[in-house]
Predict the 3D structure of the following.
Amino acid sequence: MKHVSMYTLSTCPWCRKTKKYFTDHNVPFKYVDYDLASVPEQERIEQEMRSRGGPLSFPWVLIGDDLVVGWNPAKYDELLAMNKAS
């Protein structure tokens, strides 16, 4: 299974929906709530987000090497289905 990780905000309803999507689909994931992270960790997160070419927007989800920014269950389904086919 592809590794799923995300950067979220603790107060963001779309971020909560994204976490729930992966939980409901029994897909393991790791996340960091950007707003609860230390300043050095926030700086590291921003650098990673910029280096991957994505906007500084949340939720910011990596499924394998594929980046999805925002609540997009259709794209999550697509990327997870590709994983199941391989």
In short: Residues 4-85 form a domain with the Glutaredoxin fold (CATH 3.40.30.10).
